[in-house]
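For homework, think about our next protein:
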Amino acid sequence: MDQEKTGDNQGAGEQRVLVSTESPAINLERDAKGGIVVTRRPKVTLVMLSGGIDSVYTLVKLLRETRDEILVHHVDLINQEDRFRIEGKRCLEIVNYCRETYRDFSFSQSAVDHRGFRFFGYDMVTVGFEAGIVAHSYLMAKGRPVDRWTVGTCTEEGHWEERFKHVEACVAANCFPEAPPSFFLLPMVTKREEMDYLPERLVDICWTCRTPVKTEDGVEECGECKTCELMIDVRQERARALVAEPA
């Protein structure tokens, strides 16, 4: 995911097999005579949106390049880092932009409040827990499952496979007794490649700082957390490339 807990010993690890973005899902139903009717439908894909570059890139790519039914969910992670308000605000702006620019999709939100605890957990574990809630709720409401779910990441930040077994356990726990949706990642690209893929307006809306600093007008990036340090390098790289382009 694009914004992980500071201090996580995150590494790319072994990248899991990617699921095809185009293959349809299959419904099996019984007709009036008891026979089985097989129908094909678009996959139902859940995107967990943080408001950062990685998850927005993932959302836009799926909206543009698949016919999946897209569900988008944002979790307000309320803790000492105190970024949940600005992330939530930016996510609403991102959702509105993507609906107007690409196509419609379902959007939901939830909140997990860990203020007052010295340890407030790992973002991805909490996100997995909420993904299971969303998937189970969708099944109850629609009578069909969420086929797969995903988050955003990039080559610089990777995917911590060793920890992910705990994330998947959280998803499965909240889907029980039904099967959980499968997890997949889009092919990883660099943060700069993600930004180059997105419209500049959408890049500007994204929020990437883990520990925002309060100002008279709201908040601003701290410039010191690990995502700020990465974004400073990427923005400088993009600026140099822009200057180097022929007029």
Observations:
- The radius of gyration is 19 Å.
- The chain has one domain: 25-244.
